[in-house]
Amino acid sequence: MQNNKQLSREDVVRLSASRSAENKISTVQKLSSLYSSPNITLRERKLAEDIFRIMVEDVEVKVRQILAECLKNTKEVPQDLVIKLINDENSISIPFIKYYQGLTNKELIDILNAQNIDKQKAVAQRHNLSNEISAYIVDKCPEDVVVTLISNNSANIYENTYQNIVNKYSESENVKRCLVYRSELPVTVISKIINSLSEELQKRLIMTHNLPNNIASDIVEQVKEKATLRVSAEYSSDKQIEELVHELYTSNKLTPSLVVRSICMGDLKFFEYAIVYLSNTPITEVRKILFNTQVDFVIRNLLRKAFIPKNLFPAVFSALNVIKDIRFDLKNNSNQTFAHKVIERILSYGNAEEELDPRDIEYLISKIN
Asked: What are the angstrom distances between the C-alpha of 240 and each of 193, 230, 313?
């Protein structure tokens, strides 16, 4: 009995007699099934490939679409057919590019270099994409393709490729969101992006990834600090702010990190009253020391008395200098603008007593972002 999956004499006769798309499609489907069979003979394989070469030139788009669909899951397609299929129009080439596992790295790079964004995305969606191709996509392709790559959880991505993504798209919320939602992410990458994420994405990061305790705790603490400073920003009178600081102090929530973050965001009154409570120094004396003296060591002594860690001093001094430069005109400077000015000061910070290494700078900026 003839296997109904094999190409019969009747099929060949019908294909020769009628050039309809339906007959061609039926022939392609039957041939591809035979072509994938482990029992196919060499003669049958050659016959099938010769017919495929005719079909890949067919004027009917639907015929070529079915051919690509049928061949995308086969193991070995002749090179000339592969080239024809990947260079065909998108509706034909994209499923083949996305699923045919026989494509070499050179062929994938050629597709990426052709700069057809839909075909580039098809490459980025491939299962178990190699580290090398992932790195090439990040280096050469536009952001939409990189987002597609990050969203492909099966793609292999080197740690330094992640670092390139973070550096290249540091301002892209879309890239950050995709990184957070990726199933696996190196801790080094998490540490680098964490302070630039929205609170929503920070919470998602905790839920999605098995973070080290210190990083998870830091996220939670930052969310609390930002919420506290939002409350402070709504208060206008000294009395309201002092009451808030007093409440935080009595509940052991007036942390050095929160205090330094407040001055770096331009919340001068909160910072002043925090120093009052932490150093047990009258408000008039605090203000006199901070703004009526040109002697740094007096300010340093006040910060030490308030138990502010020495490694946070540069951020405080940078913020105080920005405040002096803008002559207390904080109303015309948004928190974000003020923070950017503080960061600029920190990056150029330096004095005779201390030098900041890159890790210190990164830590200080994390307290501002």
From this structure: 35, 13, 27
Q: What is the reported pLDDT for 157?
A: 95
CA-based Rg of the chain, rounded to a whole angstrom?
A: 32
Mean pLDDT value of segment 344-360 = 55
Distance CA 209, CA 205 (A): 6
The dihedral region occupied by 327, where left means phi > 0, alpha psi between -120 and 50, and beta the remainder, is left
Query: For residue 5, how many C-alpha atoms fall within 13 Å in the half-sphere facing its CB?
Result: 10
Using CA atoms, how far apart are residues 133 and 125, in angstroms rounded to an integer? 11
Token pair 């932490």: residue: 278
If one compares 185 and 129, the residue with the highest pLDDT of the two is 129
Q: Where are the alpha helices (DSSP H) in 141-194?
A: 143-151, 159-168, 173-181, 187-193
Nearest partner of 178 among 291, 349, 169, judged by Cα: 169
Residue 341 binned pLDDT confidence (cut-offs 50, 70, 90): low
CB 135 within 8 A of CB 162: no
Q: Which of 190, 133, 144 is nearest to 169 (CA)?
A: 144
Identity of the amino acid at 267: D
Angstrom CA distances, 212 to 118, 183, 200, 265, 290, stand at: 38, 16, 19, 28, 38
CA distance 353 to 283: 28
Q: Which residues contact 195 (CB under 8 A, 6 or more apart)?
A: 222, 365, 366, 369
> Distance between CA atoms of 194 and 176, rounded to whole angstroms?
9
Which distant-in-sequence residues (6+ apart) come within 8 Å of 285 by Cβ? none
* Cα–Cα dist 316/258, whole Å: 12
Residue 207 φ then ψ, to 5°: -70, -35
Q: Are 180 and 157 in contact (CB under 8 A)?
A: no
